[in-house]
Every structure is written in structure tokens, then in C-alpha cells.
Design goal:
single chain; mainly alpha; 3% strand; globular
């Protein structure tokens, strides 16, 4: 189960969200796929992967909050034709964290302080955006 969604588009088909490089999305999805297929080989690196994924979510959260949750400003657009919304970067990263933390090999990373940071960060990412509210 993933939380990847389609780009937000207006009536004329133009993208309306803050965009980031499609490469970041591809990297996150690739890590998730590799984790499923090669979990034993990647297990020694889970702690580093989880720390980087959490750091990535934390660094993007203020921008996500500003443009998608609290601002009347429109998110800036990208010059790239196939750019994706910022929320589409968070989703594969969250999927990756969820998949790894379900395994017993991630127990050493799941310390109380790390879990607290993870929960607080995820609470920021799971808030409903204006588009989410309008689509209900």
C-alpha cells in the first residue's frame, strides 16, 4: 500500500503544486523496491537508510507546511515538464520507512528518541491540505 498520488492539476491541465525533481521520487521508489527484493542484503544499512529518510522528511516538512497547509500563496512551479508535487516525494519516503520498520532488523534504530522524532514528523506530513479538504 502506497500513498503516491497523481499530480494536482487545474482545469487546463497545468500542474498547481510545488515541484521537485522526478529523480528524488525515483530514488525513493527504487529504495523501497530494493528493500522488498533484497532485504537481507540491505539489512546492515537499514539504520543509515532510515536516518536519511527521516532527515529528508524533516527537511522538506517546513516547505510542505508553508505551501500546502498554512499559506495562501501558490507553491512555486518548476520549469521541468515532468516535475512532481512535493507531497509525492514524502509519500514514497514514508512507504520506505514503513516497510523497513516492520522488519525485525530495524529494532536498533527504533529507540524512544527516534520514534518520537518520527511520529512528530509524520504528524506534519499526514495533515490534510486544502486540496484534500476540497476533494471530500
Amino acid at each position: 500500500m502506497g500513498c503516491i498520488s497523481n499530480q494536482n492539476r487545474d482545469i487546463q491541465g497545468k500542474s498547481t503544486g510545488l515541484h521537485v525533481s522526478p529523480l528524488l521520487n525515483t530514488i525513493n521508489q527504487t529504495f523501497d523496491t530494493l528493500q522488498m527484493g533484497f532485504s537481507k542484503s540491505l539489512a546492515p544499512y537499514y539504520s543509515d537508510v532510515l536516518s536519511l529518510a527521516l532527515s529528508h522528511l524533516q527537511s522538506l516538512l517546513p516547505t510542505f507546511t508553508h505551501y500546502y497547509l498554512t499559506s495562501e500563496n501558490e507553491p512555486p512551479t518548476a520549469a521541468e515538464e515532468d516535475a512532481i508535487d512535493l507531497s509525492m516525494i514524502g509519500c514514497p519516503t514514508i512507504d520506505l520507512i514503513a516497510a523497513i520498520t516492520r522488519s525485525s532488523k530495524a529494532k536498533s534504530w527504533l529507540q524512544p528518541s527516534t520514534v518520537e522524532t518520527l511520529v512528530l514528523t509524520l504528524c506534519g506530513w499526514i495533515q490534510m491540505t486544502e486540496d484534500d479538504v476540497k476533494s471530500i
